[in-house]
Specification:
heterodimer, A: alpha+beta, five-stranded antiparallel β-sheet, 3 helices, 26% helix, 38% strand, globular, B: alpha/beta, Rossmann fold, six-stranded parallel β-sheet
Amino acid sequence: MGCIENLKYEMILPLGASFKECREYAEKNFTEVWYVDPGYKLFDEYIIGLPPIALGIDEGKKIIFPYTKPCHGTYLLRIEDADEVERVRKTARKKK
Amino acid sequence: MTDIPVTPKKALIVLGCPEAPAQQALAFHVAHNLKTRGSEVLIAGNPSVLNLLKVSDPENHYITNTMVLEKCIAEVVEKKRDCDLCVVFAHNDAAIAYAATMRYLLPERRLVVIVFGKDPGPLEAEINFPCEKIVDKAVHNPMQLKRKINEVFGWAVSRT
């Protein structure tokens, strides 16, 4: 998974989840949700997906985001990074 | 979508996971037809799908330029790469996400999404963005989908 593979991530949804399921999970299970468009840079990689892409914030310091690979589908990952959380809050939008 | 040339000057073919054999044959078909009509064709995909193409076409009769998908997406995001036509092969949910990304990044360009596989209907239903869709239940046999592709691109009289 490129650079993100080297980070300490937690897989929230199992392999095979659809992109739509990942978005719905982030929207339903996290009180703080931000939206970005495809090509948004997160952890130094460009995020793929059907816009708007939902990003969840958990415990104020963890980001929940979809990560798509051609053969595996979309992973919903959680990575702790307070600085990246702050950057999301400054650059993403609140509404779909 | 404006100023679409009949024969695109630059074409980008985005391939999905290579597990459906029809994709490789049709990728060659589309690339070959575009190339023989004068288009500059770049094929993007994961390393496995690109290696399948390279091994199958060692003298580059059908393919010329290839690029790993992540790098291609990065170049499009960074405005280092553009095209007149983007063709996305999609037989799983991930490929629809890639097609949606290309639509967002290249809003004015012609986008053709070829939806195939065992059950293309639900995948087609996921496409909620403007594009031309070519849909057929194809996994191993590419012929029906080839006919539909030829019709959309105006290659119906082609013998290739």
